[in-house]
């Protein structure tokens, strides 16, 4: 019995040591201007108060401005979108969010790649870093099937490339210990982070594409839907239905230059509409409707498929109008 106790004590000591070590490494080496740091701090501060969550990829963090929705709908919301966020990761974030907040609404931003693109390490890690509870992180580690990626999730030190860039370490420490750290990051010339997970851009798409066609995962083809993506879309819909949460699935707007190479986007609408009807979700499609070209000109985009700041405001107001009209809010 005494030996077992010693083993547990030593194991606990090792875990504490690793936790302290990894926390120190992250503080020293994670770039101070990583916007996920600011977003995570805000999310932790608001824990227990939020009633609405936005999830999705970069298209979503450029589209959903929580302040606009809160002012017009009386909500208290947060944008948990992250770059190329796979639906597997969206599910983890929604599940944790429901556990720690009185969530009434979940808004899932859909892009052409949502069901077609394979997840990659960076996209999963970006979402993992937005989890804020030990329970959420452990559950994620257990459900991730990629052993190598799980190592990167668990140990930030495995993500460090240049251990001897001491000037960068010094700069990180100086900024992170500053009383005006947040203000310094937001005042940077290239800053695109707003608040509550919302990013913005002042760039304007000039109508000229850099490539002659969309990448394969940006061309709708039902036969190329990835099983894991569909599985976790259904899990999100089932979770919200079972918890009595309003789930709004929003197909986000893109430019005509994007749509010209995007395949049968009417068929994409039908695919999502069938799923939404089956699982009790509301579908809002900002592509397949008559006034799309007038409502979303090139001036509202930063590139072929991401809204800029002006576009996000126009999109948000249009979506709120649709929600109020359809749902009688």
TrEMBL record:
Q: Could you tell me which SUPFAM superfamilies the record lists for this protein?
A: SGNH hydrolase
* Organism domain of life: Bacteria
Name recorded for this polypeptide: D-alanyl-lipoteichoic acid biosynthesis protein DltD
> Which InterPro entries does the record associate with it?
DltD, SGNH_hydro_sf
Which species is the source of this protein? Candidatus Limivivens intestinipullorum
């Amino acid at each position: 019995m005494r030996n077992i106790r010693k083993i547990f004590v030593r194991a606990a000591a090792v875990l504490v040591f690793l936790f302290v070590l990894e926390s120190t490494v992250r503080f020293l080496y994670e770039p101070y201007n990583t916007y996920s740091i600011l977003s995570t701090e805000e999310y932790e501060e608001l824990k227990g108060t939020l009633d609405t969550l936005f999830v999705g990829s970069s298209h979503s963090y450029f589209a959903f401005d929580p302040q606009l929705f809160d002012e017009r709908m009386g909500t208290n919301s947060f944008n948990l979108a992250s770059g190329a966020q796979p639906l597997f990761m969206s599910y983890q974030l929604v599940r944790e969010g429901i556990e720690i907040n009185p969530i009434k609404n979940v808004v899932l931003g859909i892009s052409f790649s949502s069901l077609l693109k394979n997840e990659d390490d960076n996209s999963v890690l970006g979402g993992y870093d937005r989890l804020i509870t030990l329970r959420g992180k452990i559950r994620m580690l257990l459900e991730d099937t990629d052993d190598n990626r799980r190592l990167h999730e668990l140990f930030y030190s495995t993500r460090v490339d240049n251990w001897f860039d001491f000037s960068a370490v010094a700069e990180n420490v100086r900024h992170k210990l500053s009383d005006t750290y947040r203000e310094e990051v937001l005042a940077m010339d290239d800053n695109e982070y707003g608040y509550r997970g919302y990013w913005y851009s002042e760039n304007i798409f000039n109508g000229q594409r850099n490539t002659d066609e969309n990448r394969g995962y940006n061309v709708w083809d039902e036969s190329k839907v990835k099983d894991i993506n569909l599985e976790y879309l259904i899990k999100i819909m089932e979770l919200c239905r079972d918890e009595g949460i309003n789930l709004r699935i929003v197909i986000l707007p893109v430019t005509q230059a994007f749509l010209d190479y995007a395949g049968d986007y009417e068929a994409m609408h039908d695919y999502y509409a069938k799923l939404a009807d089956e699982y009790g979700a509301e579908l809002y499609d900002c592509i397949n409707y008559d006034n799309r070209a007038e409502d979303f000109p090139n001036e509202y985009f930063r590139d072929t498929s991401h809204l800029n700041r002006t576009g996000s405001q126009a999109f948000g107001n249009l979506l709120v109008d649709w929600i109020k009209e359809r749902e009688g809010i």
